[in-house]
Structure formats: structure tokens, C-alpha cells
């Protein structure tokens, strides 16, 4: 799964601002930094997980250009909207699977903070497909990996329909099944 995410995002990763929401261990943001993202910010509510992210960044030698913030992701996003946060190029969203409304609300809150050609990747349980449109975001493809799915979004107000690395826009969701979630 990780290989698929970063193969799609690879062309726009170098020099990008990457936001890892509901960061957990920080794997997505750490991978983004290791592939050339200029900045990675990790938002995680759990203090223990924040310590794990910090330790993982230290072990990987990627502490420069990173911030680990202990906060509720949705509240943090809403504060950034009011605070005039610079736009994000790439956002990875991995909320608890049991709260589908949280995913929809988070996606809607990201739109105003996303760069015009920015991309959002939402990780979710495959049966709980997030909305096709959420605020300024529109989904453009879905990939499935066993019980997990990834839905890729772009800003709908830019007229840009191609995903990073694609020659043409998707006309229908794509599903790829993999025997493991770790790809």
C-alpha cells in the first residue's frame, strides 16, 4: 500500500509541504521526508504516539524540517484556516476507521488549506467509502488493499483533474487488491 501511495505522489514530493493527520507512528510523513518532502508536520492526539513519532524521526535522521504536534486533527485544521497557514501540497489522512463522519469532516476542513494542485490521500476501511466531494475536494480514484482502501482527492475548484504522475484523468475508480496491508 505504501508503495502505491508514494508511486502516485512521487512526482510532486520533492520540495513539498506534507501534512500527516492522525499520524500514529508517523510512517507516512517519515516516508514523505525520506523521498524529498521539504517539510512534514505530524498531527496526533495521543501523547504516546507523539513520542513514538519523535523517536522514529530521530532514528531515521529526519528531524530537520519536521514538527510533531499533539492536537486533535480536526480542531487543528479549523484553527489553521483562521490563522492563515500556508497551503499544503500533500495531506495524508488516517483517522480511526470506526468514525466515518470524522473522515468526511476532516476532508472538508482540508480544502481551504490545500495548494491549488495539492493532493489528499484518505485511508479508510474499504466498505466505508468517503464522500465523492467534501468541501473543496473531489475524489479522483480509489485503490483497495484487502480491508483497507485509499481514496485520492484533489481540489475541485482548480479545474486540474490529473493525479500527480498520471497522463490523463481517471474516468472511474481503480481497485487493486493486495494480500497484505503493508504493500
Descriptive notes:
- The structure is a single chain.
- α4 (73-83) packs parallel to α5 (100-110).
- The chain has an 8-stranded mixed β-sheet with strand order 3-2-1-4-5-8-7-6.
- The relative contact order is 0.16.
- It has 5 helices and 8 strands; from the N terminus they run αβαβαβαβαββββ.
- Residues 160-183 have low confidence and may be disordered.
- The protein is globular and about 40 Å long.
- Helices cover 28% and strands 29% of the residues.
- It has one domain (2-155): 3-Layer(aba) Sandwich (Rossmann fold).
- β6 and β7 form a beta hairpin.
- By secondary structure, the chain is of the alpha/beta class.
Please report which band the strand proportion falls in: under 5%, 5-15%, 15-25%, 25-35%, 35-45% or over 45%.
25-35%
Structural class assignment: alpha/beta
Total number of strands: 8
CATH arch. level architecture: 3-Layer(aba) Sandwich
Q: What is the domain tally?
A: 1
For the record, what CATH class applies? Answer: Alpha Beta
Helix content: 25-40%
Which quaternary structure do these chains form?
A: single chain
What is the CATH H-level superfamily?
A: Vaccinia Virus protein VP39
Mean pLDDT: 84
Distance between the termini: 4 Å
The SSE order reads HEHEHEHEHEEEE
Radius of gyration: 15 Å
Discrete helix count: 5
